[in-house]
Amino acid sequence: MRYEGSIYRPPGEHGSYLLQVTVGCSHNGCTFCGMYRDKRYHVRPLPEIFADIALAGAYYGDVERVFLCDGDAVAMDTADLLAVLERLYGSFPGLKRVNAYAGARSTLAKTDGELAALREAGLVRLYLGVESGSDAVLRAVNKGVTAPEMLAAGQRLVKAGFDLWTMVLIGLAGPGEKSRSHALDTAALINAMGPRHLSALTYLPTPGTPLARQAERGEFQLLDAREALEETRLLLESLQVSPLHFTSDHASNYLPLKGGLPEERERLLALLDGALAGRQDVRPEFWRGL
Question: What is the pLDDT of residues 175-189, one digit of tens each?
Fold first, then answer.
């Protein structure tokens, strides 16, 4: 398959055919993220995308899942994205779902009718990097949207019927009272948004990014293991979405957690309490990674 630059996908898309429809991220300004800094955002021409679909058909024969790369396929012109979905489902008889990352700004730029049309055409799951429910944190990391705008984007995706998977970052506010506010504000935003899935990753500096340089200069403080576990616990106990598939088992996390809320909340909290009390081992620093 033909790809431009490094390719990223969510862990849950490990078995998907990766089709690059856009290159890079439409925002690409978050101070913590280094995923697409080697690329300038652009949409690939439809003839190239269609040619790649034909190549995939010749190579794979049939596929059940497709993930649209790069960082924000929803930013594509709606008519073009609908054409890609139509070609995919026409090319792979066994195709069950097409998933993609979504950006808050690109979501807000779509009408309700456009979002509904994309869902009807077979765009099933969208991954939204919420990062934080705190306006101050989103502004500090240059997320490009306010907390109310992030909430509105997620609510519109839920309303349109997408299987919404949100991601937040433990430690993105730093330690102390900022950590507590970040956890509570994030839980409140997720509760109001109502996604089906939530993954809580833990912030690790990516070399060369603005936030990593702030950390190197001592202008931003990372959480230690205990602080990260405490923030995770506060987030988890404050979530009221039901049902919610909760994961915190990324390589960046100190303690792998996964379960359904609300039925498994107490089990997950007990694991966190065990780690905080020293009865449960946590992941050593040298094993943590992105």
Answer: 999 999 999 999 999
